[in-house]
Records
---
Amino acid sequence: MKQHEVILGADTHLDVHVAAVISETGKLLGTLSVSPPATGHP
């Protein structure tokens, strides 16, 4: 099975956290947006 490198970037904010994955050629592979916990981070 051939392995490929990807780049993961994350941007955290008060209301939403967003992550994106791009391929080694720069193609956007996917994104995910999630709300942070209401209680904050421990």
---
Amino acid sequence: MPGDVRDNPDRSRFEMPIGGAVAFANYRRTGDTLLILHTEVPREQEGRGHGSELVRGLLDLARAQGLKVKPLCGFVAAYMARHPEYEDVRG
């Protein structure tokens, strides 16, 4: 179900199931900062807002855990630039 973003620390990525596939955002953790390296949505699910849902979910999870996010992925950087309500989690 979309919107169900979970951290998978064993794979260093946030994951969101979508129609039998998984959208994900790879990260590297350094102290209390998550470096978001790459996001990917299954090709057949692109253009439906799932990438934004994934980013919103990972930012909410980071905030809840008191972590900062440094977006090295262009998609995440653009999302954060359009959503100043997440400025408090910017690392």
---
Amino acid sequence: MGNINPQLIMLPLIVVVFYFFMIRPQVKKQKDQKKFAEDLKKGDKVVLTSGAHGRIVEVADTTIVIEGESGHKTRYEKSAISLESTKALNAPAKA
């Protein structure tokens, strides 16, 4: 009874550590990205994952139309908007 194989203890421990350090943060990030995409509205300044900057002029279910600095309008998928870069763009300037 007292001779428990250490591998039987380590395997569940590895699974728990893997969950809390790998899976859970990724799920949270995906949830935040989805909420961000749903909350987009006309007039928001955004940065795309390609690095393009623009202002939203039209919002549909899965797509948005962005007006670039030169005035051209292009349709993109909502998933192409970078959450981190857009937050940095719209963050207040530090003194």
---
Amino acid sequence: MVKTHGLTHVGLKVVDPERSLRFYRDVFGVVEYFRDETTIQVQGPGPFDVLAFEREPERAGKPGGIEHFGFRLTRPEDIDVAVAEVERAGGRLLRRGEFSPED
């Protein structure tokens, strides 16, 4: 079993990641800690909470399945163990990114 800090992030499809950042920063005090061309990720308000604002206007605000959620490993170097455990449990790896900001 892989040790995690529990459920730690949720990806939200939004029209404008900058606007979402401003809203959540002003209301909840989140702090930006990662961005690329289509995504802004923020930490807070809890110590391990992460929201990912992902630009996808055609899907923003529409009900349906969850885009994704994440578990934060207590030891980032355990990622290979985590993948092996998922595969052993019947899951499969669809893609593997290189995103791994420092704490």
